Amino acid sequence: MEDGKGPVCEPHHDRTAFAISAFLCVGLVVSYLPQHYRIIANKSSEGFSAWFLLLGVVSSSSSLLNIVILQYDALSCCRWLSVADCFESLMGVLQIALQWVMFTLVFFLYMLYFPSHLKRIPVVTTTPPTPIAATVPIETASNELFNDLPRPNPFRIPIIPNDPSRSKEWTISLFIAATCLAHFIISVILTAILLAVKGSPTVSWESNLWAGILGVTSMLLAACQYLPQIWKTFWRKSVGALSIPMMLLQTPGSALFVYSLMTREGTNWTSWITYAATGALQGILLTMCCVFAWRNRKAGKNDFAVEEGGFGEERDRVGDVPRLRQSLGEREPLLGDQHQ
């Protein structure tokens, strides 16, 4: 029908799809609340992988802009449709928008409650060289043993200031936050320019191409999103700040979420494949967290305890000190053994 409204401005009613979409929107918000609460209640985001959050934020941002472009005609038709019809036609956009908001809030809380003891590298205090030399008699100054002793080197023993530098993990987190913000701003600007100048994907191959790029980008990042978190959780052997109730709600809901997006008018496979991949990987992470939580509680440990020999913040924070001392050539204990 060509009446000024355009051929795509007929209201599309599907009570089943609308009911599923409304249920998923409410469920999506509710499912993220345990994660938000856990971080706030513990005042710690320890256990999260910054790379997992980077991939998740960029992926959800790309997915949001993808569906905005694909349903640009539906957005434009809202000026002629009733509020109820417009709301129903945009349920797909609302679902992904809520997903983006709730996950981005997790990243915000991660930065806000980043453990303060992990923001700085450990301060290493070095013993003065005078006591080392004092343990050797003056008469042995020309002795071969004295000549073999490690001599203090002012260029190898740095004076660590009272204000330690930022840790590597905190520096990476700050870089990731800046990257997420820059990606979102640039993507929004490009999307707005294409839609304003070229129009919707139905009339512009440029807009359709950009929507495809965003969709594929979201898919690829989502496929890799949980891998850094799975790796970190596996080597920590602990749940940390991750919320098991959140994953228990989200993992089975992924299949329903994918089905809902598939039935939306104006979407294609690039809009829902992202959530199919994340649902499978989230199931793996959920299984690991349940196993580690059960093991730690059986051993009388809390969810933030890192298994001895595991890889995590505790091992990095404590293990960096002996590695740094060794790199500086500090061998006082060895000298003490020689004179016993």
TrEMBL record:
Sequence intervals crossing the membrane: 16-35, 47-72, 92-113, 174-197, 209-227, 239-260, 272-294
Location of the region described as Disordered in the Swiss-Prot/TrEMBL record: 314-340
Domain of life: Eukaryota
Subcellular location: Membrane
Main location class: membrane
Signal peptide: none
GO cellular component, one term: membrane
The keyword Zinc belongs to this UniProt entry's keyword annotation: no
Pfam families named in the record: PQ-loop (PF04193)
Membrane protein topology class: Multi-pass membrane protein
Keywords: Membrane, Transmembrane, Transmembrane helix
UniProt cross-references to InterPro entries, sorted A to Z: LAAT-1, PQ-loop_rpt
PANTHER family assigned: PQ-LOOP REPEAT-CONTAINING PROTEIN, SEVEN TRANSMEMBRANE PROTEIN 1-RELATED
Name listed for the protein in its UniProt record: PQ loop repeat protein
Organism of this sequence: Bifiguratus adelaidae
